[in-house]
Amino acid sequence: MSDFDFRFERGADGVAVLTFDRPDSLNSLTFTIYRQLEQLFLDLENDDAVRCIVLTGKGRGFCSGGSVEDIIGPLLESELDKTLAFTRMTGAVVRNMLRLSKPIIAAINGVAAGAGAVLALASDLRLMSETAKFAFLFTKVGLTGADMGAAWLLPKVIGSGRAMELLLLGDKVDAAECHRIGLANRVLPADLLLPEAMAIARRLANGPCLAQAMTKKLLWAEWPMDLDAAIEQEAQAQALLLRAQDHREFYLSWMEQRDPRFLGR
Description:
Blueprint: E1 7-10, E2 15-20, H1 31-43, E3 52-57, E4 61-63, H2 68-76, H3 80-99, E5 104-108, E6 111-113, H4 115-121, E7 125-129, E8 133-135, H5 150-158, H6 160-169, E9 172-174, H7 175-181, E10 186-188, H8 190-205, H9 209-221, H10 227-242, H11 245-256
Parallel strand pairs: 2-3, 3-5, 4-6, 5-7, 6-8, 7-10
Antiparallel strand pairs: 1-2, 8-9
Helix pairs in contact: 1-3, 5-6, 9-10
C-alpha cells in the first residue's frame, strides 16, 4: 500500500502480509518505518478484515535493523530528549506486537539483525529459511543488547543462559542452531518458507480467533504471576470461553457431524 514505506497486503482469507521492501539495504528501518509500524500494529487490533499477519522481507534479507545513514547518523547529532523519544518509539512497536490479539508469523527469509531480530522475536511464531540467520548485534556496535524489550523477551523464548550469550556476543546464529535452541519453530528450504507461513496463517485465520487471542494474552500476562494467580486467571478466562459462541459452535458442529464455522465470538 502507498501509505507505508513497506508492502502491506490484506488477503480475502483474513491473512495480511507485511513485506519489508528496501532490499538494497537488506530491508533496513528508517524513522518513518518505525512510526508506521508502531501505528499499524495498534490499528490492526480493530481491523476485522485481518485475523493473522505474516512478516517477511524482500530479497536476501528479512530486516537488518536501523539504517546507519537514516537513523544512526542523525541520532548522534540529536539532543537526549529526541534520542529517548526514538528509543521509546522502537519499544512501542514491540509492545504493540505483543499486545495485538491476532497471531503474527515471521517468515525469516534472510538475515534478521539488530532491530530486525527483535521484530522477528516479537512475532508469535518464527519460521526460518535454511540460509537465514539471527544476530542480536547491538553490543557489537557499542549499544546495550537490552533494546526494544529483547532482554525481557528473549530469555522467555530460549532461557536466560542462552539469551545472555546471544545478547552479550552479538554473533550470528544460523537457522539450524536457532531451531535447536527454540528460537525458530521450523526451518524450511527457501522456496517453501512463505508457502508454509501462509498455510499456517490461513489455518489460524480460519480457526477460533477468540480462543487464540485469549491464549496469547494469558501466555504473556502470566509471566510475573505466582501459580495460584495464574490458575485463577485461567479459570476465569476458560469460564468465559466455555460460554462463548465459538465453543457452542464447536459443540453443535460435533453433534451435527460437520466442520465448525468459527466467528471469533
